[in-house]
Write a structure and sequence with these properties.
Length: 603
Amino acid sequence: MTHLNHPGAESATPDWHVTAFRGDRALLDAVRELRARILFDHGRRPDFRRADGTHVDDQALDFGAWHFIARRSPAGPPLGYIRLSTPDAGVPYQSREFLGDERYEELLAAEGLPEADVFEHSRLVVEHRARKLGLGQYLNALAVGAAHHLGARAMVGTSGTKDGQDRFHERFGFRPVPGTRRYVPQYTEDVVIMLHRVADGAGRHHDLVTRLRDEFPVIAAASATPVAAAPQAVRAAPVTLADAPAPDRDVWQPVLHSADTLTALLASGDVREVHDTIDDQLIELVRSREPACRDAAEIDRIKADQLAGVPPWAYGTWAWYPWSGRLVHVLPREEFRLVRTDRNRGRIERPEQRRLFGKRIGIIGLSVGNSAALTFALEGIGGAYRLADFDDFGLSNLNRLRGGVHDLGVNKAVLSARQMAEIDPYLDIEIQRDGLNPDTIDEFFRGGIDLLVEECDTPWVKIAAREYARDLGIPVVMDCNDRGMLDVERFDAEPDRPLLHGLLGDVKSVDLLELGHQEKVDLILAMVDAGRISPELAASFGELGRTLSSWPQLASGVALGGALCGEAARRILLGKPCESGRFYTDLEQQLHPSRNVYAGGAR
């Protein structure tokens, strides 16, 4: 369930946390009990309470209708409710039952309104303690605004008269229909039919209705949590673990929606959370373009110019993330990236940022490579990516690979792609879940990439990827997660450069397809230059498969590797100095007391 903050009807009105649902039969009993209890009103309407003391308000019209519940805080009790019925519900409106079929059809014919264009709102109920806070006004405006958004030409409804409910509705542009007022025993008062034409506006509350009309797609995305249960309710048996839904472990691409395609998604029930900070993003956009602008009125004027008459909810893009059910509102792509990378300026200027977003990056191995991938995405190094890894995210990866326990079992390339897309939904990301092998490596390089980050543990992949990179003139960077060792191979500038600086001689990938365990260990030792590795890594080689399950790696070293790869990639892609070679940023040495420039106290 998503609770959304929406400002109240007046400036002094508190924020209301609105819950909306449609078609959820499991929630209707609680909603009906809430309505009936408020309508009973301490005995004023006795028909809404059973002989056993429980409250009842069962109506077939509930099925297919929109239901809106308001609370003062997300965890607070329900304080108010309203229902909106649409022509597609297939159940006669309350107004039609009140008038009878013939009289109802005559009324619409006299107004020139087809039934398919008329909506009905009803059952507006508010707890006594919330009535002076403007909640009834807010909920009524919400139902009217929702009907406007959904295409209504007119609205009809029944209204009591004893406490001035009919006059209340007149303030929203409704008018009583002559000849329809009569006493209804269930409500213990006179009831009258009220009619509202959308084209005539919403009376004195027109601005509030218009704002809530524009916000309805966001509000509608909320799928309701249970209303507070009655004390006598029996606790339902839990769903068995075997029947619980499993997450989709394969999806990694967000779905981008415009305002025109949002309604179907919201109606699907797949959206779990809605995040809309578009107003704050627009303010940041103004300040990114005009850093000296601090006047609130001027910022509002520039924002209005930017929107150019488009309602805020319809501006930009709605990114839906299927793996989490989140729907997020963001600026259009170029504006989004301008604001997102604004703090890069002074280090990476905007023309350079645009050049970087035009690059395609290949990353092989998304364990250590995950740090590089996220650093690149954060810094704006690349607008398109190809990721390859055959392995799934396991519990032992949680010591260094960013993720949560809910991600266990997800392919590492899928996980990285998700995390990158949550940073920038406009990234173009392709993945290969099977990693690279003789059957898939050609596809990975097909179509071109501008830089390769190689972080795979498999010797064949390391050499084969470099063979492809050299043939295609693609620069390669690799972090080894030991002593901050970074390899740079500028095959773009040195087409005849030996692979891995010639440390393995004239080795060919085809010779590495069938290696035993010790042969792999010997080859990796040669790759990393055994004489230069840390004592800890050197000692671990003899313990692999005996007291150690795999290579020792720490999150701090992996994070450093992502930073080093990012620095080298940015330099290479922008044509700045970064030559081929092997470079060390050894934290053991960097933090040695001899390097303390303030040794013996501050100076």
